[in-house]
Amino acid sequence: MRNFTFYVPTEVEFGKDTENKVANLIKKHGGSRVLVVYGGGSAQKSGLLDRIYSRLKEGGIPYESIGEVKPNPTLELARQGVMQALAMKADFILAVGGGSVIDTAKGIAHGNANPGIDIWDFWTVKASLSRSTPVGVVLTIPAAGSETSASAVLTNTEIGQKRGLSSEYNRPAFAILNPELTFTLPVYQVACGITDILMHTLDRYFVPEEDNETTDALAEALLRTVIRNGAIAIKNTQDYQAMSELMWCGSLSHNSITGLGSRGDWAVHQLGHELSARFDVAHGASLSAMWKSWALYVYKANPGRFARYAQAVWGIGDAGDDEKKALSGIDATVAYFKSLGMPTNFKELGIGTLTDAELDELAYRCTYFGARTIGNLVVLDQKKIRDVYALANQGA
Ligand code: NZQ
Ligand code: ZN
């Protein structure tokens, strides 16, 4: 087991009607002037936003709001939010929505606490983050896990780059998880969310380290739970029990616990981010579109690990050698993505067939213009990244 620090200070309020506690939670975490951040319309339409405003008024908490956060949220809107937060002297940022809204709120929080620094400098590591403004979350979709994670992902549309910032200052102060708030989700977003929750653990699971008994057991249990309840939720998006499991797994899958003691791999996430930056596709869809090609490209580096996954997660029996079991596990995963209606290659993702030049460009951008490799199970340089993209392009 490698050394690790595990500090997840986010207070979780789980269950029906928990959003009614929002004002008390804000006060408990030091907030007295709040900027509310929300998305493109679902929270207004469902009446959630009005309920939150009512609770803030009853609690005597002055607030302003900023909306229109889009999926694959932009740096530009976060910068606007920083100006608004500074102008109103906000001391607390409240996100009402999913990963896109939460990550915008995190960006605003960092800018508000560090006036004079352009927030993109934190994402490009030109400036280091040593303080932020507390963020609270009312979650409306189980997916990104941003409600407890140490990450925030923004897209700089000027340069076409989608980038994550990893920092302990990204952990929200509290997260309100009421599964009923997800009941208005379209099936496609539920499927994208299930995929992302699985991928947050899969991208931590396929690693060179194999001496993490506790972490591996937690990871496998979470994967089985998401697979089982995902199949129920996709048929009935208002199944409270299934949505409860997905919501809790969404937070656990990305709060670090399913990867402690190892480095994580994260290649599939990085490959997917480039697709979202270039084609504005949903995050979950970008991941399922890459996973099969990535798995087929790397599994030979450790067929035993993939065979263990096949057995522990999919119940694929003892018969056959590791290679055979590994391939059966990959097939089962791909079949599951398909059963959710998720794409497993570029064509299914709806981006057609890319030209050689487009594949070159995608791979180059994925290395941050030659500045990095990705992955740990197999380290992928620009050529290997291009190979994996080419497999997805061929429909592998
Ligand atoms: O904008 P509105 O109208 O609210 O609609 C949203 C949006 O269209 C809709 N939605 C959310 N809750 C709803 C609802 N519609 C009806 N009823 C509800 N209850 O769903 C759509 C997607 O929302 P979004 O916030 O984009 O989804 P998600 O939570 O999947 O977040 C995706 C973003 O998070 C990033 C992704 O890259 C992507 O930009 N990620 C953030 C991470 C983190 N901070 O730790 C980790 C992840 O790996 C991921 O990269
Ligand atoms: Zn993700």
Tell me what you see in this structure:
The protein is α/β, with parallel strands linked by helices. The protein has 2 domains: 172 residues, Rossmann fold (3-Layer(aba) Sandwich); 207 residues, Dehydroquinate synthase-like - alpha domain (Dehydroquinate synthase-like, alpha domain). The chain contains 16 helices and 8 strands. The strands form 2 sheets. It has a 6-stranded parallel sheet, sandwiched between helices. Helix 7 packs parallel to helix 9 and helix 8 crosses helix 12. It is globular. The two termini are 35 Å apart. Zinc ion binds next to helix 7.
Brief write-up:
The chain is α/β, with parallel strands linked by helices and 396 residues long. Helices cover 50% and strands 10% of the residues. It is globular.
